[in-house]
Amino acid sequence: MSRTSTSSADKNHPGKSMLRVHLWLESESGMLFGLGRAQLLEMVTLLGSLNKAAKALGMSYRAAWGRIKRTEEALGEPLLVKASGRTGYELTPLAADLVRDFVAWHHEVEEFALKRALERLPWDIKGFAVSPATKEPVS
Q1: For the chain, what are the domain ranges?
Q2: Fold assignment, 8-126
Q3: Shortest CA distance to 114 belongs to which of 99, 124, 100, 101?
Q4: Tens digit of pLDDT per residue, the chain (139 long)?
Q5: Following DSSP, what letter does each residue of 35-100 receive, concatenated?
Protein backbone atom coordinates (compact mmCIF):
# COMPACT_ATOMS: atom_id res chain seq x y z
CA MET A 1 0.00 0.00 0.00
CA SER A 2 1.47 3.39 -0.89
CA ARG A 3 1.22 6.52 1.20
CA THR A 4 -0.78 8.27 -1.51
CA SER A 5 -3.70 5.88 -1.32
CA THR A 6 -6.70 6.85 0.72
CA SER A 7 -8.27 4.23 2.88
CA SER A 8 -10.46 4.02 5.92
CA ALA A 9 -7.23 3.74 7.93
CA ASP A 10 -6.28 7.26 6.80
CA LYS A 11 -9.64 8.72 7.78
CA ASN A 12 -10.04 6.94 11.08
CA HIS A 13 -6.50 7.21 12.45
CA PRO A 14 -6.60 9.30 15.65
CA GLY A 15 -3.12 10.85 15.36
CA LYS A 16 0.52 10.11 14.75
CA SER A 17 1.79 6.59 15.01
CA MET A 18 5.08 6.00 16.73
CA LEU A 19 7.61 3.51 15.43
CA ARG A 20 9.18 1.34 18.13
CA VAL A 21 12.10 -0.91 17.31
CA HIS A 22 13.34 -3.41 19.86
CA LEU A 23 16.75 -4.86 19.05
CA TRP A 24 19.08 -6.95 21.13
CA LEU A 25 21.82 -9.48 20.65
CA GLU A 26 21.64 -12.99 22.05
CA SER A 27 24.15 -15.74 22.52
CA GLU A 28 23.40 -19.43 22.97
CA SER A 29 23.11 -18.79 26.70
CA GLY A 30 20.61 -15.94 26.35
CA MET A 31 20.55 -12.16 26.28
CA LEU A 32 23.92 -10.63 25.43
CA PHE A 33 23.36 -6.91 24.92
CA GLY A 34 20.50 -4.55 24.23
CA LEU A 35 19.29 -1.04 24.79
CA GLY A 36 18.57 -1.76 28.46
CA ARG A 37 22.17 -2.75 29.13
CA ALA A 38 23.39 0.24 27.15
CA GLN A 39 21.12 2.42 29.29
CA LEU A 40 22.45 0.86 32.49
CA LEU A 41 26.06 1.42 31.43
CA GLU A 42 25.34 5.03 30.40
CA MET A 43 23.80 5.65 33.82
CA VAL A 44 26.91 4.22 35.50
CA THR A 45 28.93 6.75 33.52
CA LEU A 46 26.62 9.59 34.55
CA LEU A 47 26.27 8.60 38.21
CA GLY A 48 29.58 6.82 38.85
CA SER A 49 27.85 4.00 40.66
CA LEU A 50 26.12 0.79 39.61
CA ASN A 51 23.88 1.02 42.67
CA LYS A 52 22.79 4.57 41.81
CA ALA A 53 22.33 3.62 38.16
CA ALA A 54 20.16 0.65 39.13
CA LYS A 55 18.01 2.77 41.44
CA ALA A 56 17.64 5.49 38.79
CA LEU A 57 16.33 2.83 36.40
CA GLY A 58 13.99 1.29 38.97
CA MET A 59 15.87 -1.98 39.35
CA SER A 60 17.67 -3.68 42.19
CA TYR A 61 21.44 -3.61 42.45
CA ARG A 62 21.42 -7.41 42.27
CA ALA A 63 19.46 -7.40 38.98
CA ALA A 64 21.77 -4.78 37.48
CA TRP A 65 24.88 -6.63 38.63
CA GLY A 66 23.53 -9.90 37.24
CA ARG A 67 22.90 -8.38 33.81
CA ILE A 68 26.37 -6.88 33.65
CA LYS A 69 27.96 -10.14 34.82
CA ARG A 70 26.10 -12.24 32.23
CA THR A 71 27.33 -9.97 29.45
CA GLU A 72 30.88 -9.95 30.85
CA GLU A 73 30.88 -13.76 31.01
CA ALA A 74 29.66 -14.03 27.42
CA LEU A 75 32.29 -11.56 26.21
CA GLY A 76 35.08 -12.89 28.40
CA GLU A 77 36.02 -9.32 29.36
CA PRO A 78 34.93 -6.87 32.05
CA LEU A 79 32.56 -3.99 31.32
CA LEU A 80 33.07 -2.19 34.63
CA VAL A 81 36.15 -1.51 36.74
CA LYS A 82 36.46 0.06 40.15
CA ALA A 83 36.89 3.80 39.81
CA SER A 84 40.39 4.85 40.82
CA GLY A 85 40.67 6.77 44.08
CA ARG A 86 37.02 6.50 45.01
CA THR A 87 34.13 4.14 45.40
CA GLY A 88 31.99 3.23 42.45
CA TYR A 89 32.61 2.00 38.94
CA GLU A 90 33.58 3.28 35.55
CA LEU A 91 33.21 1.74 32.12
CA THR A 92 36.04 -0.14 30.49
CA PRO A 93 36.99 0.99 26.99
CA LEU A 94 35.12 -2.09 25.68
CA ALA A 95 31.93 -1.06 27.49
CA ALA A 96 32.18 2.53 26.28
CA ASP A 97 32.62 1.27 22.71
CA LEU A 98 29.71 -1.16 23.05
CA VAL A 99 27.37 1.55 24.32
CA ARG A 100 28.39 4.02 21.61
CA ASP A 101 28.26 1.50 18.79
CA PHE A 102 25.08 -0.29 19.87
CA VAL A 103 23.16 2.97 20.32
CA ALA A 104 24.39 4.23 16.93
CA TRP A 105 23.44 0.92 15.27
CA HIS A 106 20.01 0.96 16.93
CA HIS A 107 19.44 4.51 15.70
CA GLU A 108 20.48 3.59 12.14
CA VAL A 109 18.13 0.60 12.09
CA GLU A 110 15.29 2.72 13.45
CA GLU A 111 15.91 5.42 10.82
CA PHE A 112 15.79 2.79 8.08
CA ALA A 113 12.63 1.21 9.53
CA LEU A 114 10.97 4.63 9.80
CA LYS A 115 11.85 5.49 6.20
CA ARG A 116 10.39 2.20 4.96
CA ALA A 117 7.29 2.52 7.14
CA LEU A 118 6.62 6.00 5.76
CA GLU A 119 6.98 4.64 2.22
CA ARG A 120 4.75 1.63 2.74
CA LEU A 121 2.17 2.39 5.41
CA PRO A 122 -0.76 4.82 5.24
CA TRP A 123 -0.17 6.59 8.55
CA ASP A 124 1.82 9.60 9.65
CA ILE A 125 4.53 7.82 11.62
CA LYS A 126 7.25 9.37 13.73
CA GLY A 127 10.35 7.79 15.19
CA PHE A 128 10.94 6.98 18.82
CA ALA A 129 14.71 7.15 19.20
CA VAL A 130 15.57 7.92 22.82
CA SER A 131 18.77 8.39 24.74
CA PRO A 132 19.33 5.25 26.79
CA ALA A 133 20.46 7.30 29.79
CA THR A 134 17.86 10.04 29.87
CA LYS A 135 14.95 8.25 28.16
CA GLU A 136 14.39 11.53 26.29
CA PRO A 137 13.78 11.61 22.53
CA VAL A 138 16.85 12.09 20.40
CA SER A 139 16.43 14.68 17.68
Answers
A1: 8-126
A2: Arc Repressor Mutant, subunit A (1.10.10)
A3: 124
A4: 444 444 444 445 556 788 888 899 988 888 889 999 999 999 999 999 999 999 999 999 999 999 999 999 999 999 999 987 777 899 999 999 999 999 999 999 999 999 999 999 988 888 876 555 555 555 4
A5: HHHHHHHHHHHHHS-HHHHHHHTT--HHHHHHHHHHHHHHHTS-SEEEPTTSSSEEE-HHHHHHHH
